Amino acid sequence: MAPRHPLQRLASPSRQLSMLLHLAGVASFTASFNFLRTWDTPMSAAFGGNFQFLTIIGLALAQCTYAVGLLADVTLSSQLFGLKNVLSVCSAPLAILISILYWGLCAIDKSLVFPPDFQLDLLPDLGFHAAPALFLAIDLLFLSPPWTINGYSALALSESFGFLYWFWVEYCFSHNGWYPYPIMDILNTWQRAILFAGSAFLMTGSTVVLKWVYGKVNGIEQFQKEAMVDPAGIRAKKE
């Protein structure tokens, strides 16, 4: 097993706190997927199923990230630990983006994200739209080395993901005749393009915030400065 990175606050992979956190995250995400199997909606039976929703795609990425992290804890494998950190570069900012968009739109009008007949109770709502962001942020801040992605790469990754999801949503629309989120039915094509592009920039911004908070939590003043100058780029440094 590779030695702990000098800028990483807690030991990971490990069969102690790290394994307990990853086990709790996997249990939470699994419970959310189990809920989906019992939640009968027209969306789940349509083309694309529940994976039309950005929330479910983000949940699946969070599940993969934590499952790999848990395997790394059990096996003490540095290769699996490295893979978990690579997955986190996409899954953590995406989970935070989903939380910001969802709770922000709910504050305006919850019917923009869910039809009135299919509103979620509080516990599953938190499981889908808060737990992934919380678990992934904790993993990054306390159990991971700093990311090696720079600002331009983070923006390119976010934009690529945003427009790939837009293509997927439009492809599902061509089969189903409706969009997964009611707000998309309200917007025209250009407005949807602005929504997806803006979401991609917001995802990049969440990476900047994660970098700044990483520096704050771990007492690395240089990281806090870089977050304000070099968007999203956390370069691994050695003491």
Write the layout of secondary structure elements.
Blueprint: H1 17-38, H2 42-45, H3 54-75, H4 78-108, H5 122-129, H6 131-143, H7 151-176, H8 182-186, H9 189-217, H10 221-229
Helix pairs in contact: 1-3, 1-6, 3-4, 4-6, 4-9, 6-9, 7-9, 9-10
Structure in words:
The chain is mainly α and 239 residues long. The protein has one domain (17-229). Helix content is 71%, strand content 0%. The protein has 10 helices and no strands. The chain has helices at residues 17-38, 42-45, 54-75, 78-108, 122-129, 131-143, 151-176, 182-186, 189-217, 221-229. α4 (78-108) packs across α9. 36% of the residues are buried.
Feature tags:
239 residues; mainly alpha; 10 helices; 0% strand; globular
- Beta strand %: under 5%
Q: Rough shape? A: globular
- Overall strand count: 0
The profile of the biggest β sheet is: none
Q: What is the rounded Rg?
A: 18 Å
> Could you report the average pLDDT, rounded to the nearest whole number?
87
Structural class: mainly alpha
Distance between the termini: 20 Å
Low-confidence stretches: 231-239
List the domain count as a whole number.
1
Q: What is the string of SSEs from the N terminus onward?
A: HHHHHHHHHH
Helix content: over 70%
Number of helices: 10
